[in-house]
Structure prediction request, 923 residues.
Amino acid sequence: MNEWPLYAQQRWAGKRVQRLEDPGMLTGATTYVTDVQLPRMLELAFARSPVPHARIVSVELDAARSIPGVRAVLGPADVAHVEPTVGFAQLDGALSTPRFALPAGRVRYVGEPVAAVIADDRYAAEDGADAVTVELDPLGDQAPIHDGIPEGRYFHQAAAHGPLDAAFARSARVVRRRLGIQRVVTSPLETCGIVADFDAASGELTCYLSTQMPHLARAELAEALGLPVSHIRVVCPAMGGAFGGKEAMLPEYLCAAVAAIKLGRPVRWVEDRGEALTAGAHGKETEAELEAALDADGRILAMRSRFVSDTGAYLVGIGAYVEFMVAAFTVTGLYDVGAYAYEVAGVVTHKAPLSPFRGVGMTTSQTLREVLIDDAARALGIDRMELRRRNLVADGPWRTVLGEDYEPGSWRTAFERALELIGYEAFLGRQAAARAQDRLLGVGVSPFVEAAGVGSAGGAGGLPGASHDNASVSIDLSGRITVALPTFSHGQGHRTTAAQLVADMFAVAPDDVRVIDGDTARTPFGLGTFGSRSGVFIAGTVSRAGRIVRDKLLRVAEVLLEAAREDLELVDGTVGVRGAPSRRIPLAAVAGAAHFAPHVRAELGDPTLTATAFFDPPRPTHSNGTIAAIVEVDPGTGGVAIERIVVVEDCGTMVNPMIVEGQIRGGVAQGVGLALLERYVYDETGQPQTTTLAEYLLPCATDLPPIEIDHLETPSENGTAGIKGMAEGPASATPAAVVCAVLDAIAPYGSAIEQLPLRPETIAAALATA
Amino acid sequence: MTTISIEVNGTVHELDVASRLLLADLLRDRLGLTGTKIGCAMGACGACTVLVDDAPVRACLMFAVQASGCSVRTVEDLVQDDGDLDPLQRALREHHGLQCGYCTPGMLMAIVPLLESGRPLEPDAVRQGIAGNLCRCTGYDTIVDAVVEASRA
Prediction:
């Protein structure tokens, strides 16, 4: 049940508290990186490679230097002192692809930066970039992309768990499915950007940066630039979305930093949309295959999977591995599968580097598996939902065939609830009647589990890497509470969520709590915001730091009130004696006494009402849910209209249901985009074909139906105060619901489609050939 | 350079501008009104929507010189005289119709003309009305709810 052992009240947590972030955003006052204006600031623009693979013969910069307003031009030689980046997580046995701030020898994808032009304004900088001449000797796609990876494959792994061969041998039926998950682009409305500002007197480099992980970006900047970490400050004023695409240290950022240091003036680079689409944070592209061995009753005895991700030209951040590793580790999902084998590989190609993207790996595994289960049901002549029922694990704890321990969840309950809400049984009748009139209706159902809040011991998806955070809680002389977080809120409302938790710990209102994030100078170390980790880590760190501060506060109050600890209570911004309303002291007075009252200081020594606490969760949380969708396919055009989408979500105890629902809705929208609209296309020569938002289609308001949401609440055993991490489950489970619904709608014509997205022309072609 | 006269949020500015300067850059870089965001600079996303003589315009598709003699209204002008949020802004907040906030100013300026008639709006009409403004965070539902409510206030 709802358990808040650390809290003085339960007044704000659990409520639909309006966000503290909103007023600034609604009035235009909130500052994003692109809004940062510093005195004497210059603008940077890049000259980029027009070809996918070539040896650089020469880079001619003089013409650019003569453009009015241009202050400096940097070529590869000017940034040769910058250490190449290799990403911050390496798998054993993986080859690496050092990435230089500007490539010296050759270019490897269209859009790779080759020179940086710094000018008085962006217009002059772009004029300068146009005047850069790069002589290129095309290498074609036969030459290896990286000399150290002659075959193009930088990682390969295969493993088996359980009695695989025996399971396949005794199975009544084996079903197979191949599915290509397309290349997509993360596409936050705010693109990437930096303002680099170097102070020659102190030697400090301040980078206003659009990043999900300020502290890691700081360390990466330091390493690449050869500066001490102490001399770098990363500030993220506000960020207009990221979705996994703002984790890598970009060569563009390093060039801006070099320029700022060299020129002694602030330098701003803001990625434009063309750059973001051509050379920005792409995601997902994976070839996936799955086979399942079933007995005659439709029980899944074993699964065998294969995932090969197209990582593009460089392995950046953690993106290269998570796509295929997480896919392989999540394919069995909520099904009781006794034996499982996987094979994964990553290959480099002449495309933009792959980044993580919301639901990384999980989108691929979830979509592939649910489509295969529908295939199996059709092959065995069993109702698709009945086949799921026969294989879903029971509510409660579960150990997967890979040895991952799920904490208790409402796996089956959420599934049945979604069927009830979508009206599955009634729909089947409606579908049959519609088919008689040549109308193609379909339903798809996608039960999911989402591991989040992974600590150092978690090893999710077989990936290496520590994962821990700190948070600070302080009470100032005005009696107000300041919380400093190393995570970075960029749409998720962390400031509000943290304020709700802290307000209840200290019996104050959220407005009395100031939450600071996105600044390495004002927050303690932590890894940042990704992988639905922030809720778990914020609750864990803030509870621990808050408890220490509350303990100090009560020690001061014991002295001031001459009362025993057990008689003290926190009420409405005061500390008082239980049952004696006249004996209450405002927090400001307690803080004042802690700092200045001689007798308190004499008794307690350290007067500061502040603490920083560390949290590294031993086990991840597991939220779950089920998405159900009903679609209608136009038999003439192949167009898909989504009639309904139902989401049942269980993320344990909710701190702010409104924010949880916001994450669900946004995730569903991105899932619909992936299922039906979005695809990044290269032609056969490696030239990008979808370089504007007129060609790369993001879902707009008329592409989506209202999203119906229902909550279940199975409090976490692993997370603090029952909280489970969430925000990627709905994003990764929606494509499966939509794709299964479309394939169900066109099932009378076969379901031979093996590539996403399901664009009208794809569906129309499938209908025409059937 | 061309001299233009432009009224922005009630203040008239006489400015020398390069003929290729975009209205969006004039507002943001010259006048410091950074509430107007640039999301794509090609008229596809709607983040830079402002009102020019009361009509919604993509400030990334209009040159500053084209706006000479016009009256421009940006998100900074929506807040009430007493500093409180206006009813539309309040409705968006109450319905959680924004997350990262980057599309919000353009979304607001696209919605203002929809509410002008004073007639209650149906959800489908709101969806049509904001279909030219991309939001990557919310899935639009809560924006639609907020606008419907604001239209009935």
Summary: Chain A has three domains: 22-30+468-615, 33-145+191-239+247-279, 282-458+618-769. Chain A touches chain B through 57 residues (CB under 8 Å).
